Protein 1
Amino acid sequence: MKKFTTVNDIKNLQEIIKKALRIKENPLSESSKGKGKTIGLVFLNSSLRTRLSSQIAAQNLGLNVLTLNAAQEAWNLEFADGAVMNGDTVEHIKDAIEVLNQYCDIIAVRCFAGMKSKEEDVNESILSQFEQHAKVPVISLESATRHPLQSLADCITITENCHEERKPKVVLTWAPHIKPIAHAVGNSFAEWMQEMDVDFVITNPEGYDLDKNFTKDVKVIHNQDEALKDADFIYVKNWSSFDDYAAMPEVKENWMLTNEKLENTNQAKVMHCLPVRRNVELSDEVMDGENSIIYQQAKNRIFSAQAVFSEILDELNSK
Amino acid sequence: MKKFTTVNDIKNLQEIIKKALRIKENPLSESSKGKGKTIGLVFLNSSLRTRLSSQIAAQNLGLNVLTLNAAQEAWNLEFADGAVMNGDTVEHIKDAIEVLNQYCDIIAVRCFAGMKSKEEDVNESILSQFEQHAKVPVISLESATRHPLQSLADCITITENCHEERKPKVVLTWAPHIKPIAHAVGNSFAEWMQEMDVDFVITNPEGYDLDKNFTKDVKVIHNQDEALKDADFIYVKNWSSFDDYAAMPEVKENWMLTNEKLENTNQAKVMHCLPVRRNVELSDEVMDGENSIIYQQAKNRIFSAQAVFSEILDELNSK
Amino acid sequence: MKKFTTVNDIKNLQEIIKKALRIKENPLSESSKGKGKTIGLVFLNSSLRTRLSSQIAAQNLGLNVLTLNAAQEAWNLEFADGAVMNGDTVEHIKDAIEVLNQYCDIIAVRCFAGMKSKEEDVNESILSQFEQHAKVPVISLESATRHPLQSLADCITITENCHEERKPKVVLTWAPHIKPIAHAVGNSFAEWMQEMDVDFVITNPEGYDLDKNFTKDVKVIHNQDEALKDADFIYVKNWSSFDDYAAMPEVKENWMLTNEKLENTNQAKVMHCLPVRRNVELSDEVMDGENSIIYQQAKNRIFSAQAVFSEILDELNSK
């Protein structure tokens, strides 16, 4: 694997899921694979799971880890090409990336959507600079439009919880929120589910359809009850409007997932990428109930990251 | 040892002091005991000594260390049970703890008193959630009412400086400050001294008596000169009123420790947990004088932490 | 080497440059030299290259690394001797340093000029406290008046790019900026170039002459075109006025380095310590052009640090 920013960087999804599950059985099985190599974890935004799971995965592989909280620890970054930097920005992202090229064997970066300009977000104004200027493999720790290490952990978790022969029904449901939230987790989950052997539907209120470039031909149902019927897995996530970018059109029905809504399902397992706003996106009863596999999902972030780092190291070590 | 949040988690105080002193002689004697295990150091508040000494102790034991500055690096946490999270908080502490359960073999946490609500602080509103939800051993790096790793370091330091057969006289003296300060260090020191073979008294101005739940039958003297007489060890620390919670009733006498006040003592050794406000809590002359064992105390934070981590690892490795 | 804060701490500059170049060939050749020893990296200011390159250098030598972002992670520091600490400061720098003495085998510190008081900056009000109170070797990661690890990296880079017998002409040129910038990089470069076998000149607008204590007899030319003529290396850096401390007297000519200005040189290599304000200090075309050796310079920060850490470890290990 030469880089990891979308599902397209994976040659064989089933193979990498199996690999991650083998790593979960024996996390230290490749503990010197990364010896003498350095991964830079660059955070332009907050992180708990991604920060910790990436560090654990890297340590399990014997990689040196450099963590940079770019905003607090380094310099205010300029992102515009050709900018005359006579304002608040002190270092151009291009130069920061070139320096990371000199210091790291792998660069992993978290760069959220700004939620101001649809064009900038859709074009991945920050990640694209890493893809363009990095001379070492780039790994996304969530970008404006995708969160692929989360999605891989989601696929691992679904695989672990599939105990029947038939295809499971997987529903991605919109949830309420109080602020305009990015589309990355929703987009990414939609993209990866299309690569899995599942029946996948999305449900969200009108006005909240995700970008067609990610959802493609996936069925979108605007009635949550109808969508949840017979579901085996329900993925709960909020996002703001994509069409009317970052707007929050009024929603009259109550979309918060509750135990009552689970009754109509096939004892669906409930998933969420975390952090979650309890009693806004999900009720306490669901979060703390037996259907939740949310913490298992969080744990699988380690093995998702470790499988990807390991594949990247295979590529580096083969040179 | 299954957890470490109070002196009650110690089976035999003399034994663990001896163990810490053996570690001080040879800090790398158990350098692979923690191999393949991870300790998460979670800071909800500032830290210098605790941060560094815990990292050194963990590294000396071969533990992987994950440090999380929760406020700056992760998400704004909700602490209220059942909260409808439609405000500023992004992640519930319960969920953060459950995720730490997935990632760490040991969770260590610093969570100061808020100094707003006596009830919340007395009930350890944050640490109690860690004790309730953590599925791995929890270590306090100072909580609302106690600072046990400091107190253990204090016991080690007193032991190192006791060269006579007779019981030493140990005085905990209140010191001036400009802000309402928490009771954790005072409470904890009082609690631990009651387990040591020492004559222990507390001195503070009227209105500043510590919580009886910690001081129990310890003699409290409101006249500092009287209390300091013949002292072998003087522990200097400020705290605000406990009865009139977080208030700072006026104090007319000068309680700042000076060389003059030491004259009446048995060449008392002076202790402080640091950070100290020079020339407010203690004079420069005392801080920089021959009676101070304050930096030795700071150094012993390493061996205090390492002895505790080692005991916790014994428990984990025996499973 | 007992400490490293100026060029005077180097016994033989050519030897240490050679050592750094050997390390660059084989960075892991001394990978257990620092085993069981701890370096504390204390940042009182922002850092990207220094932070990451110091960590890599330390890891390459097997050192344990403790990083402390003092302002954000620990306590607000007092710097004034004898201060009555009844204001905003919580811990005296003396006490923080004494604690670091207990925890670290080497202390490295970044402490920029405050740019308020010429006297405080010239007297190195912060670094001098480390030099006075540290009982272990002190390494400057840039102080008020010098940036020696940068200067050593600059010497390494110039050495790598000298392919002719004759002495190269090296020009330090002032560049425009929008804020009053410290003199540390300029001072330091001037100081180190006087130890190298090069023809060295400085060019800056009138009113911007650096401190004579650093530039000594080096020729200062106020006409940039004249200075750049036949240059082999051009070091670009802004600084504010030293005489009228931190002022920014008006400059009428355009001092930003462009390709046009390079025409008059001997295909000069262009250097900058980074971060750089593009199109203010340097044009994009120079930054991204073939003459730039700026990223190579950034990479050499690793080997500069590693050579110095290695020399310090030789001293420690010989005790």
Note: Chain C has a mean pLDDT of 97.
Protein 2
Amino acid sequence: MDSSDIQRKNIAVIGGGLVGSLHACFLAKRNFQVDIYEAREDIRVTKSARGRSINLALSYRGRQALKAIGLEDQVVAHGIPMRARMIHSLSGKKSAIPYGTKSQYILSISRENLNKDLLTAVEKYPNAKVHFGHRLVKCSPEKGVITVLGQDKVPKDVTCDLIVGCDGAFSTVRTHLMKKPRFDYSQRYIPHGYMELSIPPKNGDYAMEPNYLHIWPRDTFMMIALPNTNKSFTCTLFMPFEEFEKLLTSSDVLDFFQKYFPDSIPLIGKQALVKDFFLLPAQSMISVKCSSFHFKSHCLLMGDAAHAIVPFFGQGMNAGFEDCLVFDELMDKFNNDFSMCLPEFSRFRIPDDHAISDLSMYNYIEVTFSRIRYHEAVLHWYWQKKVINRGLFLFGMLIAVSGTYLLMRYKSPRPLDYLRRPLEWVIYFQNTTGFPVNSLESLERTPNVISK
Amino acid sequence: MDSSDIQRKNIAVIGGGLVGSLHACFLAKRNFQVDIYEAREDIRVTKSARGRSINLALSYRGRQALKAIGLEDQVVAHGIPMRARMIHSLSGKKSAIPYGTKSQYILSISRENLNKDLLTAVEKYPNAKVHFGHRLVKCSPEKGVITVLGQDKVPKDVTCDLIVGCDGAFSTVRTHLMKKPRFDYSQRYIPHGYMELSIPPKNGDYAMEPNYLHIWPRDTFMMIALPNTNKSFTCTLFMPFEEFEKLLTSSDVLDFFQKYFPDSIPLIGKQALVKDFFLLPAQSMISVKCSSFHFKSHCLLMGDAAHAIVPFFGQGMNAGFEDCLVFDELMDKFNNDFSMCLPEFSRFRIPDDHAISDLSMYNYIEVTFSRIRYHEAVLHWYWQKKVINRGLFLFGMLIAVSGTYLLMRYKSPRPLDYLRRPLEWVIYFQNTTGFPVNSLESLERTPNVISK
């Protein structure tokens, strides 16, 4: 495609969240005409609504994508390095487990600030425009038409050469692709919910060691805390919904924290704990898989719209950002030809995004520090020396698998279902073998191995 | 609920196909105000469009549901008993395998005639009305409002106490439930497509033995033929799409049939074969699972809308009809109380509908002649004496499972995916063990065992 062809191509990016605004930067940099349609108002002007996680872990893949559009340094400057996990035991004992070598760390980043930076970056391109307060009503990829609803509430048709759905886990673009021939799709909610709490600054400084991802692992539930630049921490409590539902009164909550997270109570503060606990109900977590990620040369899904994953790997945003980078590399390779890039993106990227989805369910964190393709990381995960040395354990697992398989087939009312639920398998193994596969405590036995 | 309460309750049934019209009969019989909204015109007046299978196998479950609304005898009178499968070997040799005892048979039924009978039956109730040419645009179960579009193309809001989605595999009602909290969903297309062909009468009579379900099993593809009352047969060819795509010319098609189904060529006729083969492209087959089947006491999914299954078990319609019967039994048990019946329907029925979905993938046919709950049938399937006697085979399977499991984990780019694909497992077992689990030839080794 020559440069005048590129300048004539209109691309509609649906969603101006993290992935949408980053991807728009990549496309604008290539001189396409880029229009972002974002349902919310401009978060740089209006106060953003609660409901999404406040901060996120930015790691290598995400940084590489930001680097490619010249934003890495700026974003990193506003992040707080986390060089290790800090495990809080029930007794209050703390032990650090580094992510890798001394020079390796992940960054705690404010979702809101990052999104603002990305929106400002995309608006610097004269060939890009962000349409805030514009909700996608309908899209017809084969016709190259989208229908959006702005403040005037009058549906407006817009023609475009490519529609990119970056509209998140509940993507409207994807619901249109779901009706296309042979589009495979699944959405599954896990039994856990999450809730955000806050640890305020203490005497003007962080109340805990700042350069750590703090973790309180407690069997089927756990709490984590990430530092913010205002010297507070945002805590996230993960727990099965049925456990949340048992905590109905202030004293239920305080008793529960006293039992499981006693050291966190003075940090959060009793009053704030009770107030925040009942501020919002626990939020659900969805895992979405689909195939393919594209429709002909007209439509593409990226980020959570293509592969919403559970957050236990801290890779949701990073995987979405890497989508943009992978697509950009394909655009180089195929000279901006959509008819080549889109199918190749599906073919190349789906195995990796499905792999990070599975890895997230398994909650290992070996792959945080490289750009090794996720699906290769899964292979490494099995092949690494440590696992081979643990051959005896694997053999035990195998016995357990076989036993489990038979047991479930004979005993369960839904014998075949279990085969398709990785999380339950993991929990089952954990219960069976005593090996805490699903708990972050397993980190102690499996320090990260694939480092760059 | 007393009788005047019942008469005041409006139920909107979306879809006037087989399950929708049957379910409307059940509800109308209970004196509810029932409105069916059907997107197509009245098939008793206009010619129906092609695209759905022409005939279907009605078996015990489906008959029990028809019996409950007094339609069994009428429908059975228009069906053609099929007392056995007739296996056509490559050499043209035919061998019959009975479904059960001499008195047991399934019925070949015309979809169109059955649908007409059910529509006529529902319209006999003064408290039921069928609105043809009315497409569902939107539904808001919590508000009890549906929006339909009639011939005048003006969206019309209708209030109702219960919305029942009987709108098939691509259900619009279900797409609205998908946005509700914690609704699990998956849709998966299998690699096979299907195509319908026809064997016309010969000298005014059936060209083959009529009281059989004719089967040409051929490894990864197969053809079946069911008799019609006009003395023709409708053939269905099942084959991977990639095989269909290889047949581009008339001579490709004739060569293919000469190679694999030589005895069918004179029956179908060369000219008709080529003409019908290229009339429509091969159709895809989708398997849909979801959970739950209801939303609060406002909305319910039934039939294909709740559980579209692949057709290899001949249980799609029968499972949908049994849904209606099960719901009716719950309405008796809970005195027509929606707030009790709906959750109980999900709790009770989902394991069975997921089981028939899995069984359909596995293509066994042991459960055709009873109303044993499907999930118990799965247990039987394993526990039956024959299988126990085949302990050695199971052991081999187990070795294969373990081997497969490891092999796939280490070799496959998507190691975890396979665990969730029953069909591939079956094919893998077949290839590994030589046991044709996926072929109807396996019937010879596993004659039906659960008979009423």
Note: Chain B has a mean pLDDT of 83.
